Amino acid sequence: MSLIIVGSVAFDTIETPYGRREKIVGGSGTYCSLSASFFTQPEIVAVVGEDFPKETIEFFKNRRIDIRGLEIRPGKTFHWEARYGDDPNQRSTIKTELNVFQDFKPLLPPDYRQADIVFLANIDPDLQDDILAQVQKPKLVAMDTMNLWINTKPDSLLKVLEKVNIYFANDEEVKMLTKETNLIKAGNKILERGPSLVVIKKGEHGALVLGEDFVFGVLAYPCKEVVDPTGAGDSFAGGFLGYLDKVRAINDKNEIRKASVYGSVLASYVIEDFGIERFKSLTQQDVEDRFSDFKNLVSF
Ligand code: AMP
Fold first, then answer.
1. How far apart are the C-alpha atoms of 45 and 70, rounded to whole Å?
2. CB 43 within 8 A of CB 60
3. What is the pLDDT of residues 254-264, one digit of tens each?
4. 0.90 surpassed by pTM
5. 275 Cα nearest atom in ligand 1
């Protein structure tokens, strides 16, 4: 099968109780593709400026990420700045500079249009819609978003939501979008809009996967030190979809349960260091070892 990932490839300036890092590599598409690369060869669609480091592009290639859909344009790379306090689930966005993403209108390479799985990672919903329209017959479409788009482009976002099978969101976003305080009611309201599955991420409390006749809860790995929570959500989605692509299963409930655990495994690793640093040393064996740890955590 094949998986395309549309999202931001970015510079992030991040402040957490563990320190501050200026303009390190981040972006929803980056985290998601790196996580998915442990299972499959994701095809990325994004744009960066000429200031984006060549070493990172080499790193993507070494991780078997197909970068034919990654455009390099004159101008500056997307830049996002955020600050986290002592609670890793709470963050404030200080700055969002779209830069080269402002007028990005990609034309997908011909074989990307045949993709089986499409992940519309967090990015402008109009761009998500535009790219989805170029994929011929995807078997599975998933999306993510964030508060900025819920606040500024709710209509565009709801239009995309109706076209996807899986909606990944964090608890706050689901409540914000549906104006419901009860998570289950909020999740059900999303299901009424079109998706057959909603994956509600709850930071250090794990995630809840809800379908019409399906519910699965996955823990978050009990991490003592959360150095930088950025990218946990995208890494979850990347692990989840990468695994489904690898096992060629999109409707098998048991595979969906395993995919959720792999999502949580990848998310738990990425937060151990700033930015994408932890991916540089992470091995397939580490991923499998933590998957087994997750099994032990819930068997009694
Ligand atoms: P997460 O922590 O999983 O929610 O994702 C964080 C990533 O999303 C960061 O690396 C940012 O570069 C990226 N990001 C932040 N705001 C936006 C936005 N408005 N559109 C696209 N990507 C964004």
1. 5
2. no
3. 999 999 999 99
4. yes
5. 10
- Tell which residue, 201, 195, 65, has the closest CA to residue 141: 195
Q: Whose CA is nearest to atom 5 of ligand 1?
A: 231
| Choice from 6, 22, 122, 271 to test ligand 1 binding pocket (greatest atom count within 8 A of CB) | 122
Cα of 161 vs centre of ligand 1, distance in Å, is: 18
- State yes or no: pLDDT of 118 exceeds 90: yes
pLDDT of 86 over the 90 cut = no
CATH code for the domain in which residue 110 is found: 3.40.1190.20
Atom 20 in ligand 1: which residue has the minimum CA distance?
123
**Residue 191 clears pLDDT 90, i.e. is over it:** yes
- Average confidence score pLDDT of the chain: 95
User: Quick one: how far is CA 196 from the chain centroid?
Assistant: 18
Atom of ligand 1 nearest to the CA of 12: 12
Q: Which atom of ligand 1 is nearest to the CA of 233?
A: 3
Query: Which tens digits make up the pLDDT trace of 30-75?
Result: 999 999 999 999 999 999 999 999 999 999 999 999 999 999 999 9
Boundaries of domain holding 77: 3-298
In the predicted model, what is the mean pLDDT of residues 234-244?
Answer: 97
User: How far does the centroid of ligand 1 lie from the alpha carbon of residue 28, in Å?
Assistant: 5
- Number of domains forming the structure of the chain: 1
With contact defined as beta carbons under 8 Å apart, do 105 and 79 qualify?
no
Interior/surface letters 148-167, b for 16+ CB within 10 angstroms, e for the rest:
ebbeebeebbeebbebbbbb
Probe residue for ligand 1, chosen from 15, 25, 48, 80 as the CB with the greatest number of ligand atoms within 8 Å? 80
Ligand 1 atom nearest the C-alpha of 232 is: 3
Residue 96 near ligand 1, beta carbon < 6 Å: yes
